[in-house]
Amino acid sequence: MPIRSLLYVPASNARALEKSRSLSCDGVIIDLEDAVAPQAKAAARAALPAALEGGAGRNRLRLVRINALSSPWGQDDLVALGGLGCDGVAVPKVSGPADLDAVAARCDLPLWAMIETARGVLSAPAICGHPRLAGVIMGTNDLARELGARPRADRMPLWTALQGVLLAARAAGVPAIDGVCNALDEPERFAAECVQGRDMGFDGKSLIHPAQIAAANAAFAPSADEIDLARRRIAGFEAAQAAGQGVAVVDGEIVEALHVETARKTLALAERIAAEVDA
Ligand SMILES: CC(C)(COP(=O)(O)OP(=O)(O)OC[C@H]1O[C@@H](n2cnc3c(N)ncnc32)[C@H](O)[C@@H]1OP(=O)(O)O)[C@@H](O)C(=O)NCCC(=O)NCCSC(=O)C[C@H](O)C(=O)O
Ligand SMILES: [Mg+2]
Fold first, then answer.
1. pTM above 0.90, yes or no
2. Which of 54, 163, 220, 268 has the fewest CB atoms within 10 Å distance of its CB?
3. Which among 219, 241, 268 is the end of a domain?
4. Which of 6, 12, 19, 146 to mutate to test the pocket of ligand 1 (most atoms within 8 A of CB)?
């Protein structure tokens, strides 16, 4: 399943919940945590059944972000998830596998760990190796706050953390979703951040507004040029093999079996997007 775009939708916002059904994001994170004020927590939780009824619509992945179990609301959030048709629970501020154990003991849903603390980043290999983990989502707002980092368009203060978590996710074979971009009125900055996340290797980006969906979907999908190159690399390598050679040269660059594996993954992702999302 492609997860190019994962949109936070506050569970306290009925209009946004309704609108999210028709949006072209690959998934939603229905939020009970930071997007919901303390006085609205109970009403937001009560809105979950209606928000999740009627199937996924265009959103292929539907996660619910609970409050931390140590907060006054987390336990009730988990109880409310029982029997609801969501695809997983996003666990905030995971600092180590014990935080996931605590949720796993009370809930059968796949777990998505939000990594947004310094301890979480340093424990990423253990978190990503948790047997119930389905994926990780970067929480770059909380992480920047804890680090004392200044906001920068190039996100330099966060590179080590982003790449460290990505390494851990890849070693464990789970998807990794980049953090949000708060700059709602700077589409060029947002597009550049998407490209940066894709260049690092992230599978997709978490979003805060519908206006961010199209750019994320474009950045995390193979481009026409990438698809064309992948096809030509596969064809070139197969021709080289037929001629008894182990490597090919395409566009002046060497192509070995490992490059063909990447090319096949590129084509497979493009086909899944065409078949499952854009169909
Ligand atoms: C930021 C917002 C409060 C802006 O909302 P609004 O003023 O309604 O924006 P617009 O008028 O431009 O909205 C246009 C239409 O789009 C709908 N809309 C807006 N946002 C969403 C959304 N998130 N999901 C679905 N639909 C949305 C509006 O209803 C309008 O619809 P229509 O009536 O048909 O015109 C708002 O965007 C918002 O609340 N965003 C989410 C904020 C959030 O979730 N924050 C917490 C997560 S981010 C985070 O902290 C990650 C991590 O934990 C970390 O630490 O980094
Ligand atoms: Mg956060």
1. yes
2. 54
3. 219
4. 19
